[in-house]
Amino acid sequence: MKYETTALHPCLYSAFLPWRDPMQHRELLAALPRLVGIGILLRDRDAGFVQLDAQGEPVVRYALSRFDREHMRAGLAGAAQILETAGARRIFSSQTKWVAYEPGRAGNLQQFCRDADACGWSAGRCVYYSFHLMGSARLGGSPKTSATNPDGETWEARNLYVMDGSSFPCSSGVNPMISIEAIAHRNASRLADRLASS
């Protein structure tokens, strides 16, 4: 895993804040000028899947595997250590239950991790986000191993193009913004040339 921290808009922070009641949520939002979040970028090893339901609609199934959950737990412990070393007065997780401690005053890192385990790591227990989905419509040289050709056109439907992070072969494990831009620029330029010549 990797750690990332950045200035976030209040609407993004509020999505990660645990919700116990309106008063606590208001208190946390009021504290935003003095809060910092650490994102745990997990390059998950194990995948989910998509299947069709009885009506033919796609249904996504994904849960952290035990392997990936252990990495997420280690990431939470490491992020808490970073915050504690930086002088944080209160450290809390993005789990749906209030999982927190106040270094040197109330609780400790070990209890924090045990409380996180007790809350759980599954859907509805911890807030997870994916800002750059990668690898769900990979490009490649064969319809047997990829969803699109190297120019991003799908094998199954002509003139349908994929030009974003889903064209990656798998998750990069790092912020993919520039790589996504490069793939989109390359394939959009090729498409523009093709359209101009037809």
Strand segment count: 6
Radius of gyration based on Cα positions: 21 Å
Query: How many domains, as an integer?
Result: 2
- Strands side by side in the biggest sheet: 1-2
Order of helices and strands: EHHEEEHEEHH
Per DSSP, the total helix count is 5
Q: Estimate what percentage of residues fall within beta strands.
A: 5-15%
Largest sheet: 2 strands, antiparallel
How helix-rich are the residues, as a percent range?
25-40%
Q: Are there runs of 5+ residues with pLDDT below 50, and where?
A: none
Description:
The protein is of the alpha+beta class and 198 residues long. The protein folds into two domains: 2-119, no CATH class; 132-198, no CATH class. Helices cover 34% and strands 9% of the residues. It has helices at 10-16, 22-30, 66-85, 109-119, 177-197, and strands at 2-4, 39-41, 49-52, 58-61, 91-92, 100-101. The strands form three sheets. It has a two-stranded antiparallel sheet. Strands 3-4 form a two-stranded antiparallel sheet. Strand 5 (91-92) and strand 6 form a beta hairpin. Helix 3 (66-85) runs antiparallel to helix 4 (109-119). The model has no long low-confidence stretch (mean pLDDT 90).
Name its key features.
single chain; 198 residues; alpha+beta; 2 domains; two-stranded antiparallel sheet; two-stranded antiparallel ribbon; 5 helices; 6 strands; elongated
Short description:
This protein is an alpha+beta fold and 198 residues long. 34% of the residues lie in helices and 9% in strands.
